[in-house]
Amino acid sequence: MGTKSNDNGHSAGLVAVDDPAKVRNVVLVGPSGAGKTTLTEALLAASGVLSRAGSVTEGTTVCDHDPAAVRQQRSVGLAIAPLRHGDFKINLIDTPGYADFVGELRAGLRAADAALFVVNAFEGLDASTTALWAECAAVGMPRAVVITRTDHHRADVRDAVVACQNAFGPGVVPLYAPRGDGLVGLITGDPAELADHAAERAELIEGIISESEDETLMERYLDGEEIDQATLVADLEKAVARGSFHPVLTVCAATGKGLPELLDGIVRAFPSPLEHPLPDVIGLYGFPRPRLAADPDGPLVAEVVRTAVDSYVGRVSVVRVFSGTLRPERPVHVSGHGLADRGHEDHDADERVAHVYSPLGAALREVPYCVAGDVCALTKLGSAETGDTVSDPDKPMLMAPWPMPEPLLPVAVVPRSRSDEDNLARNLNRLVAGDPTLRLERNAETHQMVLWCMGEAHADVVLARLRAGGAEVDTEPVRVSLRETFAAAARGHGRHVKQSGGHGQYAVCDIVVEPLPRGDGFEFVDRVVGGAVPHQFVPSVEKGIRAQLDRGLRDGHPVVDIRVTLVDGKAHSVDSSDAAFQTAGSLALKDAAANARLSLLEPTDEVSIRLPDEHLGTVLGDLSGRRGRVLGTETDSTAHTTIRAEVPSSALLRYAVELRSLTSGTASFSRRFVRFDPLPG
User: Fold this and answer.
1) What are the helix (H) ranges across 228-364?
2) What is the pLDDT of residue 13?
3) Is the pLDDT of residue 6 over 70?
4) Is the terminal CB of the chain with fewer CB neighbours within 10 Å at N or C?
5) Which of 81-95, 148-162, 173-187, 389-403 has the lowest mean pLDDT?
6) 343-398 pLDDT per residue, tens
């Protein structure tokens, strides 16, 4: 992204929109390979934005401009493709279909007001498709179904419709019927042409008017009254907007069949930004704010839905404007809060918008403004990250964040040379700023730099972007942080005496070390009698012991879950000091370790796995092979089971990939650290 152009030969859609009612923000959702990007290209060509549709296999599409997308021949990031249809501007939001890039999908759902759910006419529906449908349903997104690739020799539109109805529910109803080389509208078509489609037309009309606010409409229809087209079209839009009715449209990107009808359907049946509920907003300090409306004259509130860094123009922020109007040469406030656990520290900054652009894939076309409901791109907002709120500096606000998935696949990276270290740090900061599904961890114990990714495909894209930015990196096995503890009680003697070469040092202490239950940490007890260790030096002994616990004993791992009791010692009236007793405490702990049996501890995580019942036995058997201990299972009404188990962290390093393979991508899991347990011999 980032090639700036005032006119690249495709000027359609450059005129800014003034009325949010004339905007349709439509996200294309569907499994990888369904044809979303190809459909976008065909719609751009049909509307005159492109003179010729690009090809995914040739790497010439507008939306798949990322080198990783060209190499993998599938979308790896969100892309915006606006077009004009009559008086309406349609912002097509192309999203990846592969599970690793669900974060990009959720960003697209945030920016959109309706979804085109794309399935092809010959492959059927798999578990990943129904998972994507559930993503849309979870946010209440209005949806229509588009059946593509109807020119394939195995295409069967009728079977595809039935499969969608079985998977998505009875609200899935065709909006058009085939007619020779074209389509006829079941609502708007000529009655003579619909004679052979009476049952389909009746099903559609009944589905629409069952959602109507006019409670008498169904009764009138069942009594034989002909409902006029204007009423049906208006009620169709309301039914789709409620998210309970999903019209089916059929298109062929190669021949252009169904493309005009699809554009008409988007304009006539999909809600505008005025009708789609907007996210909640609060003030910077948590004070509630009035609910937003898509009003161009309202307070400015926009959200960064994607961030990219271009080698020519720098940082490019794709922004959905929810309220107000975004204009160039105006100050704005950029706020980002609530993602500190992902490496995005809370930040607030006043910046200036130099230019406003309409993005077309990687190209940026300058526009005079961007009103509420529209999507635009801003450049060189130095502090802006994905998920940040852009608002008026005089009335700064924060939008409620959208839910992001937890990255669960760790990848340890190392720079190949010292010269790559600076490039790596710089590129990592850019990647983390633009991708909330990527988490960076600098592990002080293992001395590794770990990137937590969504899966192998996501990791491949991240590494490719690092190398494209000039940072040559290699990967290495991820190391798990271990701990040490005492397996039995032991005594230790620490003597630090130095009487030559300047000021003397004198400290002696005797300790008893006892193991504690797992998770109890460290406990220090003072049992000295008779002032053998002066009171002021007791904290010094504890400080020296704590420092040695962090450094480790035999294998260099931190020591946990012990009680150290100071029982005796000696001091000198002149030569004893804080530093001397710290050293003596450290030596006493080392002496106790030399006389005792130590145990290595490994981290244990509690995992929660949700999966279809059909895969339950396979996953339980796999957990047993990972030394997992099942705590319980819970079955719900959707034929899914949730497993709770405790599993060593070392057995979960690639679980995000392996669980997907075991369950054909139908399972999900979460994990949290619970404690350290003894490592088997």
Assistant:
1) 229-241, 259-269
2) 42
3) no
4) C
5) 173-187
6) 678 889 999 999 999 999 989 999 999 999 999 999 989 889 999 999 999 999 99
Question: Mapping DSSP to helix (H, G, I), strand (E, B) and coil, where does residue 443 land?
Answer: strand
State pLDDT tens for residues 549-583: 999 998 889 999 999 999 999 999 888 999 999 99
Identify whether the C-beta of residue 681 lies closer than 8 Å to the C-beta of residue 641. no
Q: Which tokens belong to 285? A: 């300090």
Rounded Cα distance, 8 and 357, in Å: 14
**Which of 128-132, 385-389, 597-601 is least confident?**
128-132
Q: Which two tokens stand for residue 256?
A: 């252009």
Distance between CA 43 and CA 180 in Å, rounded? 21
State pTM to two decimals: 0.88
**What span, in angstroms and rounded, lies between the C-alpha atoms of 34 and 253?**
12
Three-class SS of residue 465?
Answer: helix
* Sign of the torsion formed by the C-alpha atoms of 41, 455, 646 and 552: negative
Question: Residue 300 in contact with residue 356, Cβ under 8 Å?
Answer: no
As a whole number of angstroms, the distance between CA 167 and CA 447 comes to 48
Q: Two tokens at 268?
A: 């006539």
Q: Are 413 and 452 in contact (CB under 8 A)?
A: no
Distance CA 111, CA 393 (A): 22
- Cα atoms in the 13 Å half-sphere on the side-chain side of 622: 17
Residue 290 has pLDDT above 80, yes or no: yes
CB burial string 131-149: b at 16+ within 10 A, e below: ebbebbeeeebbbbbbbbb
329's tokens: 């040469």
Nearest one of 609, 632, 638, 606 to 622, comparing CA atoms: 609
Find the helix or strand (DSSP H, E) in which 512 lies.
strand 505-515
DSSP secondary structure of 186-225: TTTS-GGGGGGGHHHHHHHHHHHHTT-S-TTHHHHHHTTP
CB 211 within 8 A of CB 238: yes
Assigned token pair, 390: 């852009």
Closest CA relative to residue 104, chosen from 365, 404, 544: 404
Query: 6 with 366: CB under 8 angstroms?
Result: yes
Q: How far apart are CA 230 and CA 68, in angstroms?
A: 47
Helix locations, 362-442, DSSP H: 418-434
Q: CB neighbours of 624 closer than 8 A, spacing ≥ 6?
A: none
Please give the single-letter amino acid code of residue 327: R
Cβ-based neighbours of 625, under 8 Å, separated by 6 or more: none
Q: Give kind and range of the element (H or E) at residue 589.
A: helix 578-594
- Please report the pLDDT score of residue 238 as a whole number: 87
CB 362, CB 386: distance < 8 Å? no
Q: State the Cα–Cα distance between residues 218 and 566, nearest whole angstrom.
A: 86
